[in-house]
């Protein structure tokens, strides 16, 4: 009777349980039973390792995020460690001091988790909804562009420049996002623009 | 004026340049493995078994002194050309070193104390003719072991490990190439017994799979199922409250697990020894949804 043995189903079919293992066959069934009794009070803990991209700069280093608990199994996940991804061709496991401190950013009490606004004359930031924040930004950009847009230079040549506002976009984006960002920003005439898509 | 020295900022710091494969060193492998098994034995309720396997590994260490056979260069070249492992597993039983290796190993093992079932199995193996031995070896290499003769096959596996390790040590690891998308040993085509996260001068946090048979190590991307090659649905399970050095890497695609050993946290870890020593993890995993995919002749049945 030949059968594939590294299958847990096998133990069930063998009936005798301990006799169906190498330990049992060598005559160490007692030691095996001792281990089985020893592990009874113990439980398994789920941990997760996930690949991601460092959000800091356009080098876009690969990172591995370690968490206790698995969201996919209906648990709460708590990030416990972040390190450079040794398999990533860009950084091959290394991180700069800022990247090496990513865990402290995740855990930071002063970390920005929602849009905040400091109103004119105020000395503190207060929460604002995404809709209100985007409306406010759009209003300010439109007003500034209307006041400062340069359609022609002093020689009368059409230049369509908007020099009084700049735009900085994030590095952890896809090519498609970077393309759309570029088209939107350049079509307004904005010159000071970096979407960190240089790599 | 000397202008030879040019600053090269790109090499500052220790950047990982892991080799694809690392050949085993038969003279140090088995002593390291035995030492590790005894370290587990000192604190484990399965001390008798760990001591027994450590004794078996000691006997393997005595056997490696035999002059190593070499794999013909043309066989290596042909295997490399066609993306096949150069070490032919099926030819191991026909190797001229097969019978002498087994005889020396079994004689050395027989001097050690062991339970009656093990001693009886060893006696049957020592008396067995070449044909019976070749058949048992074939079963071990095909991972199709008859349930009524597990002990004979585990002893045979120990002999084949010595043979294959000696042969793999003669291969040039730089010439080895991946033979599969999944974790398949580039030297002998076998499955891994476990994988190691290493901390070496040229490999920081890289993962290497360890071949059960020939002990060759090969680089394999982390967070990727060694059984089916999937990178989706990978999770890790460990005994709660433990040191976090041994984890079961589970795959939701093929519903299996293989252990990951965090050797960078404990440099004394050795793949096969730690797989046996961490049997409690397998016992707990048995209650769950994932089945064991690793092959270890000393843990058959899990």
UniProtKB/TrEMBL annotation, chain B:
Residues 18-180 form the FdhE N-terminal domain. It is found in: Cytoplasm. Coiled coil: none annotated. Residues 184-222 form the FdhE central domain. Pfam families: FdhE_C, FdhE_central, FdhE_N. Gene3D superfamilies: FdhE-like domain. It comes from Ancylobacter oerskovii. It comes from the Bacteria. Residues 223-299 form the FdhE C-terminal domain. This is Protein FdhE homolog. NCBIfam families: FdhE (TIGR01562). Keywords: Cytoplasm. Necessary for formate dehydrogenase activity. Belongs to the FdhE family. The keyword Cell wall biogenesis/degradation does not apply. The keyword Ligase does not apply.
């Amino acid at each position: 009777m030949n059968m594939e043995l590294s299958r847990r189903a096998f133990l069930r079919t063998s009936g005798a349980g301990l006799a169906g293992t190498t330990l049992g066959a060598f005559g160490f069934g007692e030691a095996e039973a001792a281990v089985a009794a020893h592990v009874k009070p113990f439980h398994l803990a789920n941990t997760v390792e996930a690949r991601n991209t460092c959000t800091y700069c356009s080098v876009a280093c690969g990172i591995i995020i370690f968490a206790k608990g698995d969201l996919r199994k209906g648990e709460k996940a708590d990030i416990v460690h972040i390190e450079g991804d040794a398999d990533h061709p860009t950084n091959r496991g290394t991180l700069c001091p800022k990247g090496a401190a990513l865990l402290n950013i995740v855990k930071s009490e002063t970390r920005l988790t929602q849009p905040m606004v400091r109103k004119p004359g105020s000395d503190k930031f207060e929460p604002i909804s995404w809709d209100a924040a985007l409306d406010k930004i759009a209003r300010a950009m439109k007003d500034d562009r209307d006041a400062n847009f340069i359609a022609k230079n002093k020689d009368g040549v059409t230049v369509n420049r908007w020099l009084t506002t700049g735009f900085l976009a994030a590095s952890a984006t896809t090519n498609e996002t970077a393309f759309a960002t570029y088209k939107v920003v350049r079509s307004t005439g904005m010159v000071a623009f970096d979407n960190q898509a240089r790599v | 004026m000397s202008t030879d020295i040019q600053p090269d900022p790109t090499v500052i710091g220790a950047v990982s340049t892991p080799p694809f494969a690392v050949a085993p060193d038969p003279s140090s492998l088995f002593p390291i493995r035995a030492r590790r098994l005894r370290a587990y034995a000192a604190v484990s309720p399965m001390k008798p078994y760990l001591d027994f396997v450590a004794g078996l590994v000691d006997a393997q260490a005595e056997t490696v002194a035999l002059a190593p056979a070499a794999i013909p260069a043309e066989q290596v070249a042909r295997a490399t050309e066609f993306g096949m492992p150069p070490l032919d597993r099926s030819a191991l039983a026909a190797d001229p070193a097969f019978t002498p290796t087994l005889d020396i190993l079994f004689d050395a093992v027989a001097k050690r104390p062991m339970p009656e079932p093990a001693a009886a199995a060893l006696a049957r193996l020592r008396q067995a003719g070449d044909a019976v031995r070749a058949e048992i070896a074939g079963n071990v290499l095909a991972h199709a072991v008859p349930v009524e003769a597990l002990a004979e096959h585990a002893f045979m596996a120990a002999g084949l490990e010595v043979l294959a390790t000696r042969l793999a040590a003669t291969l040039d690891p730089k010439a080895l190439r991946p033979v599969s998308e999944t974790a398949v040993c580039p030297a002998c085509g076998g499955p891994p017994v476990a994988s190691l996260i290493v901390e070496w001068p040229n490999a920081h946090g890289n993962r290497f799979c360890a071949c059960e048979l020939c002990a060759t190590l090969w680089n394999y991307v982390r967070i990727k199922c060694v059984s089916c090659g999937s990178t989706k649905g990978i999770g890790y399970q460990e005994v709660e409250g433990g040191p976090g050095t041994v984890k079961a890497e589970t795959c939701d695609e093929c519903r299996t697990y293989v252990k990951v050993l965090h050797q960078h946290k404990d440099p004394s870890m050795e793949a096969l020894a730690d797989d046996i020593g961490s049997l409690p993890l397998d016992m707990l995993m048995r209650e769950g949804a994932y089945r064991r995919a690793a092959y270890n002749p000393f843990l058959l049945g899990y």
